[in-house]
Fold this sequence. Notes:
Layout: E1 15-16, E2 19-23, E3 32-35, E4 41-42, E5 47-52, E6 55-64, E7 79-80, H1 88-101, H2 105-112, E8 125-130, H3 141-151, H4 158-165, H5 169-177, E9 181-186, H6 206-220, E10 225-231, H7 237-250, E11 254-258, H8 265-276, E12 281-283, H9 289-300, E13 306-309, E14 321-327, E15 335-336, E16 342-343, H10 344-355, E17 358-363, H11 368-375, E18 380-384, E19 395-400, H12 401-404, H13 414-425, E20 429-433, E21 442-445, E22 462-464, E23 469-471, E24 478-480, E25 494-497, H14 501-511, E26 517-520, H15 528-539, E27 545-548, E28 561-566, H16 580-592, E29 603-608, H17 614-621, H18 624-638, E30 644-653, H19 656-668, E31 677-689, E32 692-702, H20 707-716, E33 724-730
Helix pairs in contact: 1-2, 1-10, 3-4, 4-5, 6-7, 16-17
Amino acid sequence: MVSSQNSSSPLPERLEGDRISVLLPLPLSGPYDYRIADNSTLTPGEFIRVPLGRREAIGIVWGPGTGEVPDSKLRPIIGRLQAPCVPESVLKFIEWVARYTVHPLGAVLKMVMSVPAALEPPKPIIAYAVNETDVSIRLTPSRRRVLEAVQSLPPLPARDLAREAGVGVSVVKGLAEMGALKTVEIQPAITVDLPDGARPGPALSPAQSAAAEDLIAKTAAPDFSVTLLNGVPGSGKTEVYFEAVAEALKHGKQALVLLPEIALSAQWLERFRDRFGGAPAEWHSELTPATRRQTWRAIAEGKSRVVVGARSALFLPFPELGIIVIDEEHDGAFKQDDGVTYNARDMAVVRAQLTNIPVVLASATPSLETVVNVQRGRYGEHLLTDRHGNASLPDMKLIDMRAEKLPSTRWLSDPLIQAVEAAHQRGEQSLLFLNRRGYAPLTLCRTCGHRWQCPRCTAWLVEHRQGERLQCHHCDFSVKRPSQCPECEAEDTMAACGPGVERLAEEVKAAFPEIRFALASSDTLQGPRAAAELVRQIEERELDLIIGTQVIAKGYHFPMLTTVGVIDADLGLAGGDLRAAERTYQLLYQVAGRAGREDRPGQVLLQTYNPDHPVMQALVSGSRRQFLDTEISAREGTGMPPFGRLVALIVSGRDVQAVERVALNLRRSAPHGDGVTVLGPAPAAFALLRGRHRRRLLLKARRDTNVQKLVYQWLERVHVPQKVRVQVDVDPYSFL
């Protein structure tokens, strides 16, 4: 067995002969050659079992062997697996993603083969049926009921048969031991909901109808296209793309909808059931192993027709995919920074093009990249400028915190307190938004100034009063909240600096003793069930106030929520991130969109220490177009994305000297030329993360530069020892 180092396009035809190349879900540079039996034929995409060293591995048939490997070194395949083939479009997608992201083919394949247990058929179930052979036994009433029941029933498991006969399981098993019943193996049925595409949807506005008709036509064609649904919060974007999903179902196609946060799915799933009369398959990290196995298999076999999931759902092996929808397409959660780094929004466009199907991007605050693609005519666009029904956009006001002069123990301004109180008196709900988890982002000693820092990350420990712990939100390291300073040994001198949502809750309790409130953050909404329960409490008016982070900022529709207060609107504007202003605008606009979504008017109060910042002025004036034009002009002038290319190289390891050596060698070997610049190495913003020291280099190039080729050549010139890792991030979104 020798690596063929061959990453050419896999062939669609069946393969004959004595050798094939097999791609394994490992971080290898290419497929391996294996021998197949004489006169055997295999198809690219088939799952097979092969020897790998002293163990066995599962891979997929990638293509013909190279012919460069001597027969004496070839090892034979072990056998086929009873699993559906990976479709040709997915094979092409694997290759495209690997080439674009500068990651090994096998690492991308691993995302497709994310549930190895699903590659084997489900284990058969032992069932019981009538044994036609005469057996002499003593018939008790219980035994008689079982034998009578089994005459008119198909083979059933012991528990089901016992329930039908009204006896205990031991009676069924006893009859089998005596030979009155025989055991048979049956395959468990995969039961899935089948959403009804012919079910009529709600009445749409003229603007919604025009957008829906266009998407229906594109889905029916079918042909590759990208369409932006650009609509204000509450304009009914979901109902519009549901019409396209329905059209795909009518044509016997599958549909994929990606959501950035699975916590957003509670209300979305309810709307889907109302529209289609059934539930979609879900795909996210909260699924049990058994559910993941069944879901993956049902999708690969074409039984699940609609899937809603997180970014990893993009790599599921749909055999009949007819449309992809990216909801909240601007959201940073679609970017994966660990393992294979990719942006699911961008890769969804690629998968749609390779499959020749439409993709829909939906957002109230489209990303700058998407806006520019619309301007260049690459993407279509539908504008939904009005909220559905009688709802109007909320009134937005700035609260200049420089003039409020609050004491150090207060975070709510008087105007915001008055607004929340007035909403409560009217029987309405309010949302206080602060994008900080825990009680306080920093804890220090008042005596010596010692700051509690994570020992494994360049990050302060966040205090969580509810659990009496200090925790790192990057590696999950935590310690019990100490009573003594480790530096000066002073007792009870810990001081919490800055507010988190837990600290804000204390102030709310003091300011509004009669108000019923709940916290909504990733600490309290751990999974879809918790999110669904919070949604129920809000919808049924069991809560008057929600204190939340960004998990509650988008996607939700609460009819009685009319007042939104943002505690630290400037959070996120600091630092050198080129997308800081864009992200802050998007987040605050989305938060504001929770207010006044039905016939009651909404109001949004933004507490800021920088009211003249362009982001704040754009929000209160409603001049989103002007803000985007300013951002586009600034990016274009500096050659930054989407008008230029960026690639980050992150060098990491536990030995800081080894990391430094590799980083410096990369700098010495860096590519150069017209329009190509390499910056660094420099310590990453988190120079220590999960115990690994980190250095960053950044390649900046013109838009027409083949940065992947440059990076491949760059990495070939530098030796990287095993204890050091170099991660490539094409089109980086995070600079941490």
